[in-house]
Amino acid sequence: MTQTDPRLAAPLEHGALDADVVRRTAQLARLALQPDEAHRYQADLGRILGYFQDLQDLDTTGVPPMVHPTDAAMPLREDEVRPGVDPQTILGQAPRAETGLFLVPRVVG
Amino acid sequence: MSASEAARWQAVIGLEVHAQLRTSTKIFCSCPTSFGAAPNTHVCPVCLGLPGALPVLNRAAVQLAVRTGLAVGCTIAPRSVFARKNYFYPDLPKGYQISQAELPVCLDGHLDLELPGATTDSPTLQRHARIQRIHLEEDAGKSIHGEGGAQTSAIDLNRAGTPLIEIVGHPDLRSADEAVAYLKELRAILLCLGVCDGNMEEGSLRCDANVSVHRPGEPLGTRCEIKNVNSFKSLRDAIAYEIDRQVGLLNDGQRVVQQTRLWSQERGRTEAMRSKEEAHDYRYFPDPDLPALVIDPGEVEILRLGLPELPAARRARLRAEQGVTAQAAAWLVEEPERLRAFQAGVQGGAGEPAAWATFLMTQAIAALTRSSRAFAEVTTAARELARICDKWRTGGLSNRMLNDVLTQGFAGEEPLFAALQTALTGVGEVVSDTAALEATVDQVLAGLGPQVEKYRSGQVQLFGFFVGQVMRVLDGKGDAQAVNAILRRRLG
Amino acid sequence: MTALLPHEQSLTACAQAIAAGEVTAETVTRAALDRIEAQNPLLNAYLHVDSAVALQQARAVDLARVAGKELGPLAGVPVSVKDLIAVQGMPLTAGSRILQGYTPPRDATVVERLRTAGAVLLGKTNLDEFAMGSSNESSAFGPARNPWNTQRVPGGSSGGAAAAVAAGLGVAALGTDTGGSIRQPAALCGIVGLKPSYGRVSRLGVVAYASSLDQVGPMTRTVRDAARLLQVIGGPDPGDATCDLRALPDLEANLDQGVAGLRVGVPHEFLDGAEGLDPAVRSRVDAALQALQGRGATLVPVALPHTRHTLATYYLIATAEASANLARYDGVRFGRRTEARPGDGIDDLYARTRGEGFGTEVKRRILLGTFALSAGYRDAWYEKACRVRRLIHDDFERAWQTCDVLAGPTSPVVAWKLGEFVQDPLAMYLMDVFTLGVNLAGLPALSVPVGLHPDGLPVGLQLIGRPFDEATLLRAGATVEADAGTLEPPETPDASDRRPA
Fold this sequence. Notes:
The complex is a heterotrimer. Chain A is of the alpha+beta class. Chain A has helices spanning 6-9, 19-28, 35-52, 87-91; strands at 12-13, 16-17, 97-98, 101-105. Chain A has 4 helices and 4 strands; from the N terminus they run H-E-E-H-H-H-E-E. Chain B is elongated. The chains are: A alpha+beta, B alpha+beta, C alpha/beta. Chains A and C meet through helix 2, helix 3 and strand 4 of A and helix 9, helix 10, helix 11, helix 12 and helix 13 of C.
């Protein structure tokens, strides 16, 4: 996308981010927000994205995205086993663990 | 529905196959990949997703992916990229899976499927199934749900980070049988390359099927993704069920809803997965911890040179050079151990490789299945089995004697090769002395006056009965051809 | 509190004094621990101090010296580690409640190298939660305070580290820099801060904020100290696939060679074209530039035309990466969990754990990053930012055709009052405008003190180098330092003398 209609780039209303978008985003990020928090983020994110809208005016046609600061190729590792960590050092500090397993509320498959 | 109604619909099937790679260590850390260890013992900061841990890619995993790509005619990407696929699940420690999205390591391959022809000896090339891509990714851990009715799930991360390749096929398959043939061929290739152990029960090889139906000439229908397919049988059953289900819906004027469905082998049907509160939004983006994977074309050529003879070529050669039937060739090439057993028998002096192959596929396997022995013993006893096959084939053993030898041999306590030798000695020799056989036949027929009368008045189907009676007297050891000949003379 | 002794004012001096037997490591360590005990209640620079282990390490150095064993380059020097970096045996908080109770099983690579060099590890310093902040106020454990004025912020996110070094609570510190988190607090606290080239220093064992931007670097009292510390912690690490394979050159060798002939680029956008630049900051920076010219450097006007887009680009990329990097804090394997209520599912456990465990700023950034990557918005935000990142990078590439280093202010303002911008995140983000581009382009950059503002607060000059040319950068920095002088540590009252108002 090179030239985006700013109104399409973020669903802003009176400078705040759309409440549904905030709710869906919080759900994706697994963040339980109190109602006052959600309001606050609606306003904050709306203001921040509003400020960032300038970016949409920049023509980036033909500019490849830059993901890494360098173009270096990835070094690879040899397929040799090395000692891991003693499971007890980790399981011992887990919020809930039993018989070598981490426990969570039952996950419906 | 009537057959003609069903025939108006064409199924369109594409498979996504996940294969665990046979490396010593995980894809992004140096933990061992071995199966069956105590829970959470093959773990380190990387595969536990601890703060500050960083992935480093395993060279062997890349090589196995490239070998697979070359074996199915893919182009190897000189530069490919790892991405993060974001979702929360307790067996996914980092909250994202490292996979390849836009730029996978292999692109554009194909499998030419040989489907059973009209006769067993005329396999005809029936389907050119294209492979869209092969990409590298990490496996998740295992969740054990509510054991003993508990309200908890337990997480074991030993499997987390096991290297996988995902082989994504185009929707080029048209029936459940074709899907099975595709998966079998792919599995044979993976085994032949040593890329994967192919064990579907343990989940080393997993398959999801995308199924839709449409009327030929019309746009493709809405597809459903079927998961939880862990054997060839369940793949065939699940696809057949799903095609019926979709055709049924459409014939009833209903629509197919795009969804993920789980195959239930017990209930014999696919079932919609509990719909999630939110649609998946994986938010893929390039993993900033991993620079681009650059594969040198020279290295690709070295890997290409190192490829073994692939299943299709091997089957062709078995047929052309050794006269093995198409069916037996396909069977032998399906599992490397079968081919090894076959070769051991040939080297051990099997007189006619084609007959030995068929013998191995039928009699030897039947005896093995009845016993508790492992296939590996068949390989070590291949010389004895080939000798038994030859003796039987040339009339040195009757069917009954063959059966006894195999049954006793496979049931014995000793190693199979020794048990077979003992059984072969014990079974004695076939009775082929003409005078002795004639005497027996005369004696048997003398006691069967009424039946002989009936035979002579036209009830020729009684011939088998006479053979059986003679053989019973001979304790199953009569030379079948000689007995037949004598009976024909006496009765004719 | 008594003034710092010469060997307490510099890492290199300290190492030399210990090696020469002029002072024992134990004495130096004890003095640092005493200062921490006296001043930390006020400064809140340290989140964790392990006196017993530190003294043990110091005694081991003293014994080794007496036994005539060869000492490492940092033998006996008491240093601190930002609490974003794993130290085996010390809790790791990342300034967050969500890591409560977590102690990492291994040292980060940089910590391993500190140990090998003989450094004494005093403890872990305060920071903005998950390094997300410019004032240290997002720390779950309360902000560190600026030793120059304890009503002021120390900067962030490595605010505890900067405050500690400025006040003499340890001779040097390791910080991390994702968008200025070493340089800006260094400037605000009047010390030297070096953000190395991306890939120069291993990130293994460092809690990730934004993986393509994060770097560990030295925070010290002198430029030579920064060179020495980078020499120890930098270089290839097979445990980090983004770590550069090239060995470090000798960073101290040419430190005193001066700047004759050096072309110093002065970006228009950082001075004349900068909005909100405090004129008094500007005048200190101008003076430093004049001094460089006086030493034979050539000042070259350059343009970084995409500077006005760095803020958006940085925050979109950094928060997108962070949204994934922070997904592992889910209450399953380590850290804090908010137990589900009866009938709750796993997703409730996640949402409650994360909703309660993360602070306001972290949640804000996770939301922003999640949004920037989400279906329907990804192209307009995340991907767009990645393209603009290339343009920002190319601005710098063009600048290198006419100059060897770039110079400008590190921060547009001096340390501000605690609480001043807490309700205005965007205003706080704008404080980072000069430092963000460096991280987007992966460049090395250094902040050096260039005197005091009329308010009595330090001003920092930022020097930016070519990729992997820390040596030239440090040489220019040493020249600036020679003119501007190091700042005397401020007279920080003991906690017992005065309490913060």
